[in-house]
Amino acid sequence: MSSLSGTAVTVVGGGFGGLSAACYLADAGADVRVLEKNDHVGGRASQLEAEGFRFDMGPSWYLMPDVFERFFAYFGREPSDFYDLEPLDPHYRIFFKDGDRLDVTGDHEEMRDLFESYEPGAGEAFDDYLETSESHYETAMNKFVYEDRSRLRDWIDLDVLTAAPVGLQLIGSMQGHVEDYFEHPKLQQIMQYTLVFLGGSPKNTPALYNMMSHVDFNLGVYYPEGGIYSVVDGLVELGTDLGVTYETSAEVDEITRRKDGFLVQTKAGDVSHPDRVVVNADYAHAERELLPDHERQYDDDYWDDRTYAPSAFLMYMGVEGDVEPLEHHTLVLPTDWEPHFDDIFEEPDWPDDPAYYLCVPSKTDDTVAPDGHSNLFVLVPVAPGLHDGEAIREEYREKILADIAENTGVDLRDRIVYEKQFAVSDFGERYNATEGTALGLAHTLRQTALLRPNNRSSAVDGLYFTGSFTTPGIGVPMCLISGEHTAQALIDDAQ
Predict the structure, then answer these.
(1) Which of 177, 210, 401, 447 reaches 20 to 30 Å from 198, CA-CA?
(2) Which residues contact 27 (CB under 8 A, 6 or more apart)?
């Protein structure tokens, strides 16, 4: 990236996309200032400390280590300069609600045998599936993810034509793709559970995301010591070294184009006049609430017609004693999870028989809980926009704690010494998240690649967007890459 010497850039929002863009822009010589609404940066990757417990409130899976290595390598650094990684084995445990239980590990032969035990021929199918997944991962990352193709003209390219077979995977659904390999519903679920984290369902997510199985089985699952917030701290330390300044408790309530540069104003009345602006806040919120009407790209009908990724019902709990047999990452899945996806995407409602995720970092890190205690949270994906008043939260809390006891054998109810809930309305209030989405814009067939909102404003020169609404999409690694794309777009335009 080339010189932006003397260019003042304000980044609105300190999530991973904004932190990433800030590093790239500062490295290119810009004078970068990050304004963050909350009292700490990190966006949804925030941290909760209370009564000796420390919780990652948002992302808790460290996947795609190659993306982090590539990011830090650009600046002549490596992840270990900022945090230590511990590989998790097993990667995660699954409890099925019919009493079945299995561990997903990094041992290929062990996994092959496991698949074969559920369905004759599934071992060989597992080999074939992972081979396809790895091929799609490498092609997709090199041709579609690391290369920013957010405009139609970016797709008229020899690289795209040579990668066309992978591009065509955008047309089919994950459900159809997985059914081509496995008949057993549990094996299909194992290959598709990551869709929840991409904000989609098997029916509406492009088959290209089969590449996540390569991430899952081959690249490994890690834990950064101290939690995901250690990665946030690493980005801030790197940014500080590059000259970025960070201001927290600085909520922006107006962004307006001026004859020369922009006016950016915070709720506290602080006014600045940067040359360029990068928005890492919720894209729909920024367009509807921060920009004047004539500087918006999309009208209300556009935003009302989007499919938002799920929200979540979360309980952060400090618990006396241990929580065997839970693992660091544990999934609890009904034998038929279609009704849960219907409750998210078709007829929004609180799921009656939910699939959910339990995270127990104290299995790996003894600094996140006092001696003799466990730190865990439960995450239930729910539809965005649901009413989540006190009565329904209390009712659902009881339901989930009973479900955990019944299906994992771990009864937490008499051992909880600390608890905090976080749900749909909290995402809206804390992160200005549209409809309380926990993730951003879902990866549906109509909302993938260039069909996502642009990272370069089509209405205002010098205004850019980054994060989980833009390309390449949802998740910490994708937001890191989004920051790079946005920074590069700004630099290209400045030239």
Answers:
(1) 401
(2) 1, 74, 75, 242
